[in-house]
Predict the structure.
Amino acid sequence: MWFRRDLRLADHPALLAAVDAANGRSREGGGRAGPGNGAGGDVVPLFVVDPALWEPAGPTRRAWLVRSLRSLDAALGGDVLVVRHGSPEDVVPEVARAAGASSVHVTADAGPYGRRRDDRVAAALSDGEARFVRTGTPYAVGPGSVVNGSGEPYKVFTPFSRAWLRTGWPAPAAPAPSATLWRGTSGRRRVDGEPLPPEPDLDGLRLPDVGEEAAHRRWHAFLDSGVAGYAERRDRPDVDGTSAMSAHLKYGEIHPRTMLADLARLPSSARAGSDALRSELCWREFYADVLWHRPETARAYLRPELARMRYADPARSTTARERLEAWQRGRTGYPFVDAGMRQLRAVGWVHNRVRMVVASFLVKDLHVEWQHGARWFMRWLRDGDLASNQHGWQWVAGSGTDAAPYFRVFNPVSQGEKFDPDGGYVRTYVPELAHLPGRTAHTPWDAPDGYAHDYPRRIVDHAAERVEALARYAEIRNG
């Protein structure tokens, strides 16, 4: 069993397929199955530290991954997970040969790199005796499965979401049998691994508890006390109003199908909150579907005409570079923006409403291309998911799936006053403004002592830059 973005034991069709194969059974598809007795062959649980994924990952995701792998190994019984470093197309066949494996089992990968990598591994295994078996998906509905009446993919969210709900998804799969024999425990040949990479220095960045058990603990706490008010509170970064499950989903410590099944069982009193959270899960699946059909949009524009926009290039302009750095450090002079960028560096996560505001500020106030912001987010986010991150940025930049693309320019002051009305979020992450009471934290320029503690002046004028952004859009529309 080659683990990737599925670091759990529960609701894991690929793992069940591996157990069945070890016990001489076959499993079709990815649905529910009985627990079995676990007697018979053993399963080698493998994780490959792939340089193509490890090296570009920032310290936050590296630290989360290492901790999640430790948690998975403990759940397997300790000193069980085989960790190897190297290219999967070399490592996986080597481990399969060492184990005498008849099959290699994976959860099907939907990402551009993962699909190419898996094809290479399957080809490498075809020269030996082990079959490469893809079972299940990291999503409730596999990307590429939801199409319109003409067989074409959906290009905007709302019709996709309706079709996604009509399509439905399987019930959660049974847990892995507790009697499963992992490598070495059956007296058969033992497959040796290598140490996990050391955790990087996070320089004060704080992560929550990691792993499958932590994911379920957080999820059930949210179901007990958060979901009923989710629809009203989810846009408020100053309160604990979101599920905070995005990183657990990114690493597959919990399956979205498990969450959807739990939401379906909630009483009618929680209907508004469960519907809103189901919609957010659907957004995650929509962006994965867009990337499935348009893999080039991980780097390139979904709407290519937006690439002709006049942007400020930090590689060529000192002013653009300084402004980009001010945005990265949370020193733009706009408190709601700066709080978001400092939250990113403090906890490796940013509230979704704030993500939209800080992205809009970079692209439409500073006129810097979305790829610069997307790369910075992927470096520091603990939930840095390629499809959600890149297409979330493209949505804000006007080059993505938004039906009314470019005219939405978020006002960083009014957004702060609306969604952080008492200024608590700003004061949490911008201590230079902690002395300003209530909503005045959003407008230090109006307070006599607003700049008493070295908070920076505004680097641009939002009203003027909004006009400039729309003028630049008009240029390409009329050109």
Q: What stands out?
A: Residues 28-39 have pLDDT under 50 and may be disordered.
